Sequence to fold (503 residues):
Amino acid sequence: MTLAIMNVTAVVSLRGLPAEAVYGLSSAFYYLFAAIVFLIPTAMVAAELAAMFSDKQGGVFRWVGEAYGARTGFLAIWLQWIESTIWYPTVLTFGAVSIAFIGMNEAHDMTLASNKAFTLVVVLVIYWVATFIALKGLDWVGKISKWGGMIGTIIPAGLLIVLGAIYLATGGHNHMDLSQGFFPDLSKFDNLVLASSIFLFYAGMEMMGIHVMDVKNPGRNYPRAIIIGSLVTVCIFVLGTFALGFIIPAGDISLTQSLLIGFDNYFSYLHLSWASPVIAVALMFGVLAGVLTWVSGPSKGIFTVGKAGYLPPFFQKTNRNGVQRNILLVQGGVVTLLALLFVVMPSVQSFYQILSQLTVLLYLIMYMLMFSAAIVLRYKMKSAPRPFRLGKGNGLMWLLGCLGFCGALLAFVLSFVPPGQIATGSNTVWYSVLVIGCLAVVGAPFVIYALRKPSWRDPQAAADFAPFHWERTETAADAAAKPAAAAKPAAAAKSARKSNEGE
Fold:
């Protein structure tokens, strides 16, 4: 149960609920579909990989690198880091909206939340505050993340669902369009892009795989924890989305503001308007906690890999607290530049959506690498110990790996389609940002890998970083080849002596 609750707190975020509320009842279909083809496969496949390499550093770099080589492994850990960097402005936009709704005048709050200058300033202030806290060390991050997750996510999620139930039970008007039914109209292809963003709702579950060896009887209890956690997560998402749909008509839903407007409307209905600023502060605190967790997480992963010789020495510098200072500062610079995209995007909402889609694209590439690597390793490292194994043969791994890969591929393709519900401005800008963004981000690690030098390796870090299985095989083959190579000249000399004696 402890692991199940950890799964819920790691995955659940309320900021994406408005994106699915426009679908009405059919949103439940999308949540369940994404859970079956992505959430559960991600958790189960990552658990086997994490248990298999529980004594080795590297995370997804290790998993993918063992299957495809260090270059592709570096691409995977790079995508995990850069995806989170691009994600910050979107989640912080939600934080800015939360701050705007701290006031007591809803019309004024909505105007402030739509103001680009206000949003830009708040995004940058919250992000850099989170960065400076992260530079203080893990103790600060842990304390704020622990309380922020509970106060800013779990409690508001439960409250939103309860408010929705009270609203309907007391005769409140249901604004949700029930004519759509559970199964969506899949013929409206341009509307599926918002549904594909559900996959990112479930992202991060692979990080729970590191706890697989801490569970008693992991072969039995880990899958149970994943299934329980997944069911609770899906219930929170479905019921929370419904709660917003009950109180806000689909045509009035805004991706950035509707969660706060929904709370405002419920509190007004119950004559509890004083509670609106309280929930806005709680949600803002939850955003800060979430950003803190991610600021220190993926950056630490790529920092560890970088010290093994994959990043220049500049990116290996730490402060006196042992925190990856330069990576965090560069990361902050990228976030600041992305936040300035407000200048060219037609609205806060369109900026939010296009960065969200770029984030989805990059993260899904990493997931496709992870799923395919897990299958490949069943054959490349068939005799390697697997403390947690999916099935006795390879059938279950093929099923879950292919299910996750195909689900991620489907979401990847759909993410390029401009959403029909949102004015994103020119389609040229939309496609340019997504296509050029993907090509630039995916190409960068290959350039860095090609330019790497022996001087980049930190001797101490490299010693702690275990070699890949194929590196050990090559070393063993080289060692075996040396005696054979040395034997050839000796044999030739002996033959020559015999020939001379014969003459």
About this structure: The domain at 2-466 is CATH 1.20.1740.10 (Amino acid/polyamine transporter I). The chain has two domains: 2-466, 467-503. The two ends are 86 Å apart (CA to CA).
